[in-house]
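not sure who needs this but someone in the group chat was asking about CYRIA/CYRIB Rac1 binding domain-containing protein from Sphaeramia orbicularis so here u go. i didnt clean anything up, its just raw.
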Amino acid sequence: MGNLLKVLTCTDLEQEPNFFLDFENAQPTDAEREVWEQVDVVLKDAKGILDELQAYKGAGQEIREAIQNPNDEALQEQAWAAVVPLVGKLKKFYEFSQRLEAALHSLLRALTSETYDDPTQHLEREQALAKQFAEILHFTLRFDELKMTNPAIQNDFSYYRRTLSRMRINNVPAEGENEVNNELANRISLFYADATPMLKTLSDGTTKFVSENKNLPIENTTDCLSTMASVCKVMLETPEYRSRFTSEETVSFCLRVMVGVIILYDYVHPVGAFAKSSKIDMKGCIKVLKDQPPNSVEGLLNALSGKASRTELNDNSGCS
């Protein structure tokens, strides 16, 4: 936490946006509707993905028994039969990450366009799209939290790949091989090898969006991210705004979105979120987090602390 605290004392910031972003009830205007409907199709599947991931138990017992008894064909078949449908689920989660990245691109295209003069106007006047962007971030952090606490995911997929490779060498036909071919298996394996695969997908997707839209200044994207972080912070620390939340779940939602967008900004911005020149009030964001019940924000604080400790704080050489 040392680096994090050091950064927090050295931030110069412009005037923060001050408006209420209605995460609970924002509805699309006619101008937003086309993009909103495209993204809504993806977000409708997000809860089901989280439910399936939360219920994912893995085939640990079957795999252990098969490994301990390599000559028992019945146990090998039981382990394979248990793993194949699970790999189908893991493939589904991976494919959803690709859909989520495409939805993110649609939202970034809308929220960074020249329709309005600055990101504050975009977020204030396109609240339904801002809400969807927040929902993507909320889903992403929740997915990664569940994945990190479930080692069965990587164990199951590793066993599937080893067994499939062995079957191919022995010319044994494998039921389920068509489910995931070798090229797709490599991509899925890389996806789950990351500690936070969904956030990595969004981070890479945002970087890709910037690189593919060279006519769009990178500041359009990074300012959109920093403004979203500021809006969340201001709503959480302002009693007038916070009292308008009808559910405590909206507070948790807002906290998670704030942290997610900070991490995205840190990934995309050339100097990161924790440098002196950052447009995000990191000190204020950390204070908002620490003002919550400790058990509810420990993971979020750890996520930010981890990012800070890995960030080169070159801009802080003048701070003491």
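also Residues 1-13, 310-320 have pLDDT under 50 and may be disordered. if thats useful
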